[in-house]
Amino acid sequence: MSRKDPWPRLRRALLYKPSRHVYNSKKRLTAEALTRVFQRMKGLAYDPIDARQDMFSVSQVCKSWREVSINHREKIWGSLPIDLDTDSEEFIQELLRWSSSSPLSIYSGIPIDSDDSPRYNRWLLVLEEFHRFESLSFVDDITNYDFQTYLEMAAPLLRSFEAKITEPPIPCFRNILSQELFGGNAPNLRHVNLTGYTLASNSFLGLNLTTLFVNVKACPPSIDEWVEILWSQQNLVSLTIKHALCLENDNPASSLPPVKLPLLQELCIMYCRSIDCGLLLNRLSTPSLCKLELCLASHNDAEREEEETCLHANLKWFVGCSTNKFISSCKLVDVSMGYDTETSGPLKILSFTAFPEESLSDSQDAVFKLSYLTQSTSEDDFDLELSHLFQTLKAIDILAETTAIRLKPLPQSTPFSDPLLELLLMFKPGQLRSIEFYDPTQFAMLTYVRPSRYSQKLLLECENIHVNQSCNDLDLEGNCIEELSEILQYRKDRFGVKTSSIIYY
Which one of 69, 172, 288, 398 has the fewest CB atoms closer than 10 angstroms to its CB? Predict the structure, then answer.
């Protein structure tokens, strides 16, 4: 074992079977070292609830370890999460006693009961220590008014708050946060995740949040209300708005100035109309933004074109105001079609994703994602959505610096027409250095897309082409295979094998 290892004795104690040397007082781990072992175990498990069982098992290794776990119970057990769904009332009482005055982490994934059930009694037990809550995650019940008062009480130690509530078809008093959350007295609160609660412009007054996630369908805040909310949260680093955006009841003559979020790095606006998204972007200034994700709900009414025009203008302005120009420097783009998993119904989602690095093989986080949701299965409607997507990409000029692209299969309106190939031809010859074809048919069809000389030159100027199957498996009429063979031979002669490769996988 290396001499640099700071934990040689600890490793021997945990990895080897107990022997007589372990029980020798000279070989025994100190109480301080064992306490650190328990504390480190809290962060090893993916689920904090699972970490408790591991710690219980380790505490039963021997008598001295049990004594350490009891004598130092505030440091060891103090911050263990309490699971109100599975923990018994007796066990919760023991955890509360062991934790002494340490902060508490509370979890529940089942709606709060409003009767004398065991779960309700367990809730009453921990709520007596509400002033010690450091982390709280629970599912609220629209019929339970007992917990409403706690949302208005001071929470001096709370750092993370996540709550979901049954969302009624119409708003009611129970799910409206009409007063400041925790009375505005939660000085350590940084992370808030709310689903189903209707917000007011003063919901987060007095708080200093860094992460805010809001998901509400019934009476979401207007754009003006969002501006007022964000004016009070200018230290946000991450902001996610799902369904929670509505143009209705907005004041067209609003005098509210745009809000500046100097620290915001991630912005996600999901399941909103194009015009709502565009107008909100027009009211924001985010000089430090590193990631932008937009998911737009499509519709085919008479105002669609006007709404898309509004989105293009405001998105172009928003991107141009970003000092680091993170969107304009995207090197790799990806276009795909799939099904949305977060909404009910057979919704299809057309997505464009951009990445900062050119490499096709390395996994990397996206810096920009634009998606359109649609329920229609008509080819004409799909072509319309694709047209809107391409127009938005042109508006922000995101393809100007792109050098690599992934092409995944999309629905085709005709056998010899692939919309992704039309996207491919939006690039200048020599601009792309890498192209990845998920469908070998796309590779062959590129020679049929007009103008053919342009498409052939596009392939000739590209250094690396990736195809997921051999083109020999294709059975197409005409001279497509022969033309591709000539192109590939020319590429080998011009670039050489090392810089011009067809990769089959």
Answer: 172
Structure token digits, residue 346? 């057979």
**337 — phi, psi (to 5°)?**
-130, 130
Q: Are 444 and 476 a contacting pair, CB within 8 Å?
A: yes
3-state helix, strand, coil in the chain (%, to 5): 35, 20, 45
> How far is CA 246 from its chain centroid?
22
Q: What is the DSSP letter of 24?
A: S
Q: Are 262 and 287 in contact (CB under 8 A)?
A: yes
Spatial contact of 77 and 39, defined as CB atoms under 8 Å apart: no
Contact 55, 81 (CB under 8 A): no
pLDDT tens readout for residues 240-287: 999 887 765 445 445 678 899 999 999 999 988 888 899 899 899 888
Indicate if the alpha-carbon torsion angle 458, 462, 467, 473 is positive or negative.
positive
DSSP letter at 478 equals S
Q: Phi and psi at residue 259, in whole multiples of 5°?
A: -100, 135
Tell me which amino acid residue 157 is. Answer: L
Q: How far, in Å, CA of 288 to CA of 477, rounded?
A: 53
- State which amino acid sits at residue 218: A
Report phi then psi at 413, rounded to 5. -80, -30
Both structure tokens of 419: 């919309």
- Residues 175 and 139 sit within 8 Å (Cβ to Cβ): no
For the entire predicted model, the pTM comes to 0.82
Dig out the tokens for 192 from the structure: 């808030």
Q: DSSP labels for 399-435?
A: TTT--EEEE-----SBTTB-HHHHHHTTSPTTT-SEE
What is each CA distance from 483 to 234, 445, 471, 476, in whole angstroms?
Answer: 58, 11, 12, 12
